[in-house]
């Protein structure tokens, strides 16, 4: 049951037929893992914390740099040099002290990914590293935890949702082979327009909330956003019979 304070705080959620008090209680009981507190993770974390996600796990091994502030809206100039997870915990606690924040100042690898993912209701991949993305994908598949994957560069963004509660779901490795080479283009050498990250991150947070509430979500598709022209494209992701992660061997 919601307290009077919570009823007032989340009143705009409670007015929604798709949420209501029951849905808000679901959000407060949910555990969400957000990996990567950069341009995608910053806006996504703010929306999830504001929504009242009961337990928000934050993973990042980097420190705040001055060049981050152009797009990583969770941080302030006074945070430069501090661990991102520490700065994020402080900012999100100020936003909503009603939630539990669990920070992990570590890099995700194939060795620790499953430990981080197990017990979560949803995982958000907000990273920019090819190997890390595949480690997260494999762990989510193994733990049967839904994965919301986002990416952005220059004036382009992409979003995919893989619901591994469905054994027939395709996975990130069906889209991008784990044996492929790390993409040569990244934000550090090619740039990115800040609000493009905000668009994708907001949709990641929205997908996570809808998955928790059991609302319809576009799954198993690659959604591409062309920010220059304001266009969206959608492509179905076929489950590969040769996929090393999700194929029936």
From TrEMBL:
InterPro entries: ThiF/MoeB/HesA, ThiF_NAD_FAD-bd, Ubiquitin-activating_enz. Residues 10-245 form the THIF-type NAD/FAD binding fold domain. SUPFAM superfamilies: Activating enzymes of the ubiquitin-like proteins. Signal peptide: none annotated. Gene3D superfamilies: NAD(P)-binding Rossmann-like Domain. It holds the Pfam family ThiF. Keywords: Coiled coil. The keyword Coiled coil applies. Residues 78-105 form a coiled coil. One of its GO terms (molecular function) is sulfotransferase activity. GO terms for cellular component: cytosol. PANTHER family: ADENYLYLTRANSFERASE AND SULFURTRANSFERASE MOCS3, UBIQUITIN-ACTIVATING ENZYME E1. Belongs to the HesA/MoeB/ThiF family. This is HesA/MoeB/ThiF family protein.
């Amino acid at each position: 049951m919601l307290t009077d304070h919570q009823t007032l705080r989340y009143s705009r959620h409670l007015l929604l037929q798709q949420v209501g008090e029951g849905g808000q209680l679901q959000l407060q009981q949910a555990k969400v893992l957000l990996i990567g507190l950069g341009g995608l993770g910053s806006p996504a974390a703010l929306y999830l914390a504001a929504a009242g996600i009961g337990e928000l796990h934050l993973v990042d091994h980097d420190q705040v740099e001055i060049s981050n502030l152009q797009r990583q809206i969770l941080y302030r100039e006074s945070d430069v040099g501090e661990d991102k997870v520490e700065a994020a915990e402080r900012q999100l606690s100020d936003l909503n002290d009603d939630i539990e924040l669990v920070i992990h100042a570590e890099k995700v690898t194939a060795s620790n990914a499953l430990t981080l993912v197990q017990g979560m209701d949803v995982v958000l991949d907000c990273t920019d590293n090819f190997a890390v993305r595949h480690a997260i994908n494999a762990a989510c598949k193994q733990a049967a935890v839904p994965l919301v994957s986002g990416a952005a560069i220059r004036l382009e963004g992409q979003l995919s949702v893989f619901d591994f509660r469905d054994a027939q779901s395709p996975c990130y490795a069906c889209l991008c082979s784990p044996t492929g080479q790390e993409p040569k283009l990244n934000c550090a050498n090619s740039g990115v327009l800040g609000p493009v990250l905000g668009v994708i991150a907001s949709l990641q947070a929205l997908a996570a909330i809808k998955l928790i509430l059991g609302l319809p979500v576009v799954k198993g598709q690659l959604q591409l956003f062309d920010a220059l022209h304001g266009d969206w494209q959608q492509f179905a992701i076929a489950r590969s019979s040769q996929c090393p992660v999700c194929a029936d061997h």
